[in-house]
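Hi F.,

I've been meaning to write this up properly since the lab meeting, where we talked about keeping a consistent format for the predictions we share between groups. The idea is simple: the sequence comes first, exactly as it goes in, then the structure tokens exactly as they come out, then a line or two of notes. No screenshots and no reformatting. I'm using this chain as the first example so we have something concrete to point to.
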Amino acid sequence: MTAPPKKDQGRSERVYAPDFLTELFRNPLDPGYADAAARRRERQASPSGWRHWSARSVSLVVAVLLGFLFAVAYRQTLEAEPGRSQVRSGLVAQIKQRESETDRLSERADQLRAEVARQRAAALGGSEAARLRTLEAGTGLGRVRGDGVVVRLADAPQNPDAVTGKDVGPSRVIYSDLQAVANDLWAAGAEAVAINGQRLTATSTIRSAGQAILVDFRPVTGPYEVSAIGPGSMRERFEDSRSALTMRKVAEDTGLSFGVREAEGLTLPAAPEPRLRYAEPPASATASPSSGAERSASPRPSGSGTSPSPSGGGR
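Output, unedited:
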């Protein structure tokens, strides 16, 4: 009789059951995959000599090189730190010096402006001086005091993300918000408006530079207070304006702070003296007649004179 063939040692024998689902859950992995996984584990357990040492040598060389590079970078950082600290401290000192000079010049300009006002009032009569003060108050070039409204806007507080814990950033007040509030205060009857102490005039600008807000090219920071002097009905009219309704909705949705309150005895400073520019008549070029051709200037009817151009109009 022929002996039954011997089964390979170490190879798992798969038993087939009549129930396919039972066989599937009992032996989910094919024997070929199990054998391949076993051979891979054996190779990893006992790698060949030269490959094993080659891999270890490469890893060691890479580790040494990385350590050397980190050491060099750390040493260069330490050597350059005093220079950077010195440059930073120098810039901070320059900024503080310029700020002090600017404050000193602003105080000097206010003193000179007050002296000019006194000299001008002394030179003019009583009625003329009063009329001039009224015009200065209306144009923003004079200091004014009275009752009015203060609109306060502030950025929303930073809220950490619930998953990462990092600050997702606040809802910020942008320059167009201040523009809309100032315009609606004017429409509500305001006679004088200032933003954080910066008086607004007919030529004032409210714009942004990066994340900073500039009023007449001077930076203002939050919280922002838009102060306005005007009639008693100004607050009620402003509360019904488009900007007030929009900002209240934004405050409810984002947490941004927005409030309106009445204020008594507001004092708004005068705006800086504007730099006036004057119109000048264009230089008229004399047209020379050419032979057999008409003048280059447009023909005029007979007897018409040339009206003089207006010289200078202050703006």
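Notes:
Residues 146 and 265 are 5 Å apart (CA to CA).
The radius of gyration is 41 Å.

If this format works for you, I'll send the rest the same way.

G.
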